[in-house]
Amino acid sequence: MDANVKTKHKLRISRRTALLVFLFFVVLASSLFYVFMMSGDSSSSLEGVVHVRSESELVSAVDEAVDSTVIILDNDVTLTGSLVISANKNITLTSNRATVFYKLIGAKHESTIIVENKGVLRLGRIVVTHAYDDRGGGVDISPGGTFVMFDGAISGNKAYFGGGGVYNRGTFILSGGKISGNDVYAHPSSRSGGTASYGGGVYNMGVFRMSGGIISGNTAYCAGGVSNDGTFTMSGGVIYNNKAIVDGGVYNAAKGTFNWRGGLVFSNSDVIVLICAISLICIIGFLFLYFKQRENNRKSLVC
Question: Distances in Å between the alpha carbon of 244 and those of 107, 119, 183, 185, 209?
Answer without folding.
Answer: 26, 32, 10, 11, 22
